[in-house]
């Protein structure tokens, strides 16, 4: 069980490290509204990206492999499933041994919930915990966009700040860039205007978060990346979180399972952050 406990903490820590990096540099996210200069080329490309984005009422990763790599030394792997209803919920079920569900992570716009079924503990918190613990504010949209290959922008709460958005092209590949006082954000596109890489760089140059999307596969009317990798680098650490999807369904009328928290005792979610 010690290995499972370490895997759980590593999974949660990677999510939280991503949140902390994004939030410290940019606070909340916005999906469509950006203050811009030199709008023409950037706006045209923005519309092309939005037009190409995956459209669905729900998606389900019926089987995926999760790989967690911390500083290239500690590695964890597990089988999992994931259900997503846009603007509503991300439900992840981790089943490392023979389909036995060992823990659940559920994100909604209101709160986060993690259940350790082996220990009989649940951890529940609103996103305000990040403001309490780190002095930052975040929202649900970042996670959903990252998991579904959609465009999002790190926004600023300072209305007086000038934010620049530019379109460019290098080696035949288009790129949309977003710059403000604390960070830069870059979307590298494939030939179909789908995001193949996304990079968020701190202006100090000390931190970088990247998302990679590969193996775009047709599933009915939807083309979706079956390979997703998140990478976070700073001066002292390198985190990788890999998703490899092998079974995928779209718009099949999924059901998010009801959770009865009465059968678990509540734990302190800050223990997962430490």
Describe the 3D structure.
By secondary structure, the chain is of the alpha+beta class. The chain has one domain (2-273): outer membrane lipoprotein receptor (LolB), chain A (Clam), CATH 2.50.20.10. The chain contains five helices and 16 strands. The strands form two sheets. The protein has a 14-stranded mixed sheet with strand order 9-10-11-12-13-14-15-2-3-4-5-6-7-16, covered by helices on one side. Strands 1-8 form a two-stranded antiparallel sheet. It is globular, with a radius of gyration of 19 Å. The chain starts with a helix and ends with a helix.
Q: What descriptors fit this protein?
A:
21% helix, alpha+beta, two-stranded antiparallel ribbon, 274 residues, outer membrane lipoprotein receptor (LolB), chain A, single chain, 14-stranded mixed beta sheet
